[in-house]
């Protein structure tokens, strides 16, 4: 009997809580989808029955935010729990496209020096799988035990490469991984980040026919169809968890990397230029359609389904998952455990940044910084960054006059009315909050973590 207790103690010391106490963890990460474009968020036309069902089983944060409105820095925040100016991934490329292969490696090497929730889960005995979007090298580079992305620039490795087939070309790699983990009787972590509903918008014809209408632009119809196609793949994944009888002990975390809107939705506005095939006040912008996302956490028997008015943020993924898995949460992380109502109650505002989409500078994240933003209750302040001459990194969402804009995002969620001149005291308070936040990021306890 003493020997039994000895081996049990060794297991707990080595791997945290025993296997039965540790949930499987599934991250579902949609790609380029506006915060409003789901059935459970009230969209009038887009149907997402599988995510709607998940929402009914989840703690739902309708006011979730990303650290940056662009896929690579947004995903890097999920992995590290840090803001872009801390982990160093501020855009999609180093020096545009010209020297990507040569210059990206030192940036990745610097990024991988930060603590990672993926490596922590792997070290704790989890089987971990990468599929879909993944920018930082191969799945091995990311610390996964298995995966799809090779990350080899000589073979066109970038932002997911072979992993981008997941969802669009079936679900077998991830369902096989779940089957393997069940056979091995080990807890698992699944990074499911399909290239959906991201362009190219090539949905099944049946879905395109469903959303096509005489009064609807084709780019909008294609996007709507892609949103439902993504939802169908989520249903396949969640259904497989149920078939394998592991859904009851699986924490599902849902979030989107950044927003998106079809180009035709702002084509009638002469002040809004189109960029890379999406509307300007969406992806890569500091507006709600760029930075806002619903966040859902489902954990049967552990998390009561409800809608929360509290803020959620992508910096919270690491501490939330680490806590649920029984791991130590690094003290330098700025996020909080979203499953703690007390922790959420202590947060009254959230922050983030917008950088140039390209031309990252290793060791100088402010070099391409364009905007900083803060949301507090109904107020949202956007501040244009004027710290450097950034003319070669032209701001895609620039305005000509005032360096700040203030919106009441509860009464004006589409941010049509700048009320900065009417509320100078709010502007001053939130601007100071942004300055304090930036200073706090570089305190000794957080610097170089």
From TrEMBL:
The alphabetical list of record keywords is: Calcium, Hydrolase, Metal-binding, Signal
SUPFAM superfamilies in UniProt: Alkaline phosphatase-like
Which cofactors is this protein said to need? Ca(2+)
List the InterPro entries: Alkaline_phosphatase_core_sf, Sulfatase, Sulfatase_N
Q: Which residue ranges does the record assign to the Sulfatase N-terminal domain? A: 23-326
The chain's coiled-coil residues are none
UniProt superkingdom = Bacteria
Q: Report the sequence similarity comment from the record.
A: Belongs to the sulfatase family.
Task: State the protein's name.
Answer: Sulfatase
């Amino acid at each position: 009997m003493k020997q039994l207790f000895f081996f049990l103690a060794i297991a707990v010391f080595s791997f945290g809580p025993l296997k039965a106490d540790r949930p499987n963890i599934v991250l579902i990460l949609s790609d380029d989808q506006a915060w409003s474009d789901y059935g459970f968020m009230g969209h009038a036309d887009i149907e997402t029955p599988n995510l709607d069902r998940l929402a009914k089983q989840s703690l739902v944060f309708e006011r979730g935010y990303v650290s940056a409105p662009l896929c690579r820095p947004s995903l890097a925040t999920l992995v590290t729990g840090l803001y872009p100016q801390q982990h160093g991934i501020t855009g999609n490329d180093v020096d545009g496209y010209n020297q990507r292969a040569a210059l990206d490696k030192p940036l990745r090497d610097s990024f991988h020096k930060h603590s990672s929730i993926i490596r922590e889960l792997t070290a704790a005995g989890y089987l971990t799988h990468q599929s879909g979007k993944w920018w930082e090298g191969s799945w091995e580079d990311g610390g996964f035990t298995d995966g799809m992305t090779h990350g080899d620039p000589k073979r066109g490795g970038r932002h997911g490469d072979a992993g981008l087939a997941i969802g669009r070309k079936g679900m077998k790699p991830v369902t096989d991984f779940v089957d393997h983990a069940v056979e091995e009787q080990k807890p698992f972590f699944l990074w499911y980040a399909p290239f959906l509903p991201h362009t190219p918008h090539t949905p099944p014809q049946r879905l395109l026919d469903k959303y096509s209408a005489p009064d609807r632009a084709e780019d909008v119809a294609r996007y709507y169809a892609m949103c439902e196609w993504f939802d169908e793949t989520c249903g396949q994944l969640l259904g497989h968890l149920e078939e394998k009888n592991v859904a009851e002990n699986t924490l599902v975390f849902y979030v989107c990397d950044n927003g998106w809107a079809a180009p035709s939705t702002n084509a009638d506005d002469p002040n809004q230029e189109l960029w890379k095939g999406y509307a300007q006040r969406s992806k890569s912008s500091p507006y709600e359609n760029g930075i806002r996302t619903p966040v859902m956490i489902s954990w049967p028997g552990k998390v009561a389904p409800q809608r929360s008015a509290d803020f959620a943020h992508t910096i919270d993924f690491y501490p939330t998952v680490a806590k649920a898995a029984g791991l130590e949460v690094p003290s330098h992380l700025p996020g909080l455990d979203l499953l703690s109502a007390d922790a959420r109650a202590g947060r009254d505002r959230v922050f983030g940044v917008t950088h140039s989409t390209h031309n990252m500078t290793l060791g100088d994240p402010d070099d391409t910084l364009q905007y900083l933003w803060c949301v507090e209750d109904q107020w949202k302040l956007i501040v244009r960054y004027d710290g450097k001459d950034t003319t070669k990194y032209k701001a895609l969402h620039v305005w000509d006059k005032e360096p700040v804009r203030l919106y009441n995002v509860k009464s004006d969620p589409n941010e049509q009315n700048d009320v900065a001149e009417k509320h100078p005291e709010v502007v001053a308070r939130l601007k100071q909050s942004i300055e304090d936040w930036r200073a706090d990021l570089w305190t000794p306890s957080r610097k170089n973590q």
